[in-house]
Amino acid sequence: MKRIIGLNLLAGVWLTVSPVLLGIDDSAYQLVAVSLLMGVLIVTSSVCALVGLGGPLVVSRVEACSGLWLVLSPHVFNSPALSRATANDVVVGSLGLALCFVQTL
Fold it and tell me: Which of 22, 18, 79, 20 is nearest to 43 (CA)?
């Protein structure tokens, strides 16, 4: 269980720093904002889970909603299909959803 939470924590940190590391330009500012906000939310919920604040079900749901929003947000904001910001959000969101599924088993 702690390994999965640790992976979620790493995914949240990646989302927070990825716009800078990937050099995502200003045209995808909405997806940059989504990456930053969801990254901070995932890091916060993962730290809460590691410390013991909130139940695992609550943390799992927060992270699942974050993952789902990361997958859907490029479509909501009509982002270019092949941009780095779109690929980053969809891949990390899918990973987050998969980890939440494994965590609930």
Answer: 18
